[in-house]
């Protein structure tokens, strides 16, 4: 009985979502006609945005998105049909508002179908790359001490996490990264810049950080025996030597994508290819090692 009720409610919620999407699109289309005739001025508002906020009670973010898309629909009516069909999203259109022109809107709108807000950002910078700003380091203002008494903070309350990195595309190849770091990070960054001054004389943030990346990735590759510059072989294997050169290990690792068998399974496979009698002495060695371990 509960599962049937859950399925019924699920269908009902899905219907409401579709209805909500339809109503939002209908609202934006009606708002486009309202904006094109500038009827908000007759009601005493200087802009469509302020009308949506103060008269209709929308939040500023919602009013901004809807008023911007309404203006786009007034300029390019084809957008209304794409919105109604669910082929375009309001958030994606907002990201494209500065690149749409009479000449390219059909092409851009067609390419934007089915894209998320982030994908629309990348599409926008293809048509209108943003200027690349120089790296800037600035200290954030100190927050004032809270006026709430310490006793009012519940026990075990954790401090809020730092804000996540914000990445904005500037061109199809470049991204702008805004990140909050500690004072210790900046002090260590200056030390690394000084240590790399011979290799990175400009001391660019990306150059310095990527040099650190290279060290970490190289160490990881060595750990996995995947280094691009293996050391020269210092040991020449004999006829009965069980020594395996590093180059062979790397080749096997790459061939098997890191999925290497254990010693017992390796011997079992060797028996299949070389014969059980030939591998008997190696299996004995394996068994002796297991008994003494």
Task: Kindly describe this structure.
With 293 residues, this protein is an all-alpha fold. The protein folds into 3 domains: 2-127, no CATH class; 179-230 and 244-258, no CATH class; 261-292. Helices cover 56% and strands 3% of the residues. It has helices at 2-36, 39-42, 48-55, 60-75, 78-84, 90-96, 105-112, 117-127, 183-195, 205-223, 246-256, 263-274, 280-292; strands spanning 166-169, 175-178. It has a two-stranded antiparallel ribbon. Helix 6 packs parallel to helix 8.
Q: What's a quick, concise take on this entry?
A:
With 293 residues, the chain is mostly helical.
Largest sheet: 2 strands, antiparallel
Mean pLDDT across all residues, rounded? 79
The side-by-side strand order for the widest beta sheet comes to 1-2
Helix count from the secondary structure assignment: 13
Give descriptors for this structure.
293 residues, mainly alpha, 3 domains, two-stranded antiparallel ribbon, 13 helices, elongated, disordered C terminus
